[in-house]
Amino acid sequence: MTDDKKGKMKKQLIERQTEAKVVRKIVLIAAIILFVIIGVGGLGGFLYVNSALKPVNPDNDKVKNVEIPIGSSVSGIGQVLEENGIIKDARVFKYYVKLKNESGFMAGTYELAPAMTLGQVISELKTGNVDQEVVFKVTLPEGKQLEQIAAIIAEKAGMDGDEVFAELNDKAFVQKMQEKFPSVITDDVFAENIKYPLEGYLFPATYDYYKEDATLEEIVTPMIKKTSEVLAQYTDAMENKEMSVHELLTMASLIEEEATAQVDRDKIASVFYNRMDEDMPLQTDPTVLYAHGEHKERTLYKHLEIDDPYNTYKYNGLTPGPIANAGSTSIEAALNPEETDYLYFLATPEGEVLFSKTLDEHNVKKNEHITSNN
């Protein structure tokens, strides 16, 4: 190799080494700049959130009348509070509420001030310290069916019962509720053979209303919201049991309608699950009455012949949907049944529930406590 070629190669090697050094410097500088940007951005984000968690103006104690509409979501409440200058950022409020697992906010007009902390604001919204008086209350007992609930609402709100019941079953109305509570009211309520989509979805409780002319939507929204809040406590349990909201409310409603005392529910639930495991029909009388669509003092053999998907004497498994609204105790029983070998239970005229493992044992108890009029 000539000296000229050697010199040329050496020159190219030096140039490549120089380029490599330049590239490494550029990469290092870019990395430093990126790190600074991320650090500054992260710091900026931290400082912003930290600021948003503090009062808007610690020195401003002047109260404002802030109206929280019935059925408002956490996002909606945050937006109202931000627009009224009570909090700095609705999104931070939303995540703060979620992180703290806060719930139970009440509609109404509140006296709030920019000097209040998030904790104080949330406390006010939960305690219901409003400057409006309750115009009317609606109390939904456990075990009530939608038609009965419609009558209760109509009586308290001065509406027509038939019109209320018709609107509760109107698909457009149900879909509007579904848009508000998509995780609770799923497409399961529109499945084939469902008699009334919102059956079992209006939680038993007492609800306060502050407007004489409240619409049915304004009346029903907090009832479904309450169902959503209650079910949120059992998300993990539902996942572990692989139960949908619809299945849970359906099972809970059967337990609710059969139970005569709080202590019976866990055992009644165990009977239902044991029968399903054995591929046996549930054979629960309230479903027969629901299929007939009318109240009867007693379920007779002739009533069991009705060919209806809700008749658990003819069809195995759960009914297509709930047959009534269920309270927390029945919901918990549906998720945590007692472990038993019982396949039968019998409610005596005295209100006692007797459990049996075999049909023979059940029939003996039936003959002892029930006088047949069939």
TrEMBL record:
Membrane topology: Single-pass membrane protein
UniProt site (Important for catalytic activity): 258
Gene name of the record: mltG
GO MF assignments: lytic endotransglycosylase activity
Protein name as it appears in the record: Endolytic murein transglycosylase
HAMAP family xref list: MltG
GO biological processes: cell wall organization; peptidoglycan biosynthetic process
Role of this protein: Functions as a peptidoglycan terminase that cleaves nascent peptidoglycan strands endolytically to terminate their elongation.
TM segment ranges: 26-49
Family of this protein: Belongs to the transglycosylase MltG family.
InterPro entries documented for this protein: MLTG-like (IPR003770)
